[in-house]
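Q: Trace token order:
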Amino acid sequence: MLAHSIFHLISRHPAPPPRAADPAVSATKWWDSHPDLPNLRTIEGGLDALLTELKEAGDALVIIDVYGTWCGACKAVFPKFVQQAGAHPDVVFLKLPFDENKAVAKALGVKALPAFICLRGADGKLETFTAGPSKAGVLAAAIERHNSPRCQLGGPAGSPELNALASERRTAAEAALAGAAGAGVA
């Protein structure tokens, strides 16, 4: 009797047909859904790509958003990051995906996500902080605090942490090449 009742209920209310996914909506991930701003870029290529971006930025303020694609707070604060990029075209905004850049994030001292790192030419790393959606104003305050005109002698020094990581990589690569040359491998 119970089985008959369930069958009768299901047959009177069939499941709706599956909805076709909209390829335009489903293909865009939240970390890629932003207007095309020339000062907002994603670091693809690890440390080398980040060092290239920092070199090209010169003495401009650089804000790096270290995010996880799985991080709810990262997703919630991302629109504020994009909003700041639109409001400050003279500042370079970089997105650094944590899962693909763990060594770089560690070298920069990232301990929690989302993490924001402020860098500027010869000054190197100015500040690192975390800011969830309820504290998104911290990002705007940091930009205002560090985005002032500078008068400096000399070229940009970059971040000491990143320079050390790059030096370690070069030393390891040189040692590997020397070992291969010593073993008769060309």
Notes: The two ends are 80 Å apart (CA to CA). Residues 68 and 98 are 5 Å apart (CA to CA). Helices lie at 2-12, 23-26, 46-57, 72-87, 102-107, 137-146, 160-182. The chain has a mean pLDDT of 79.
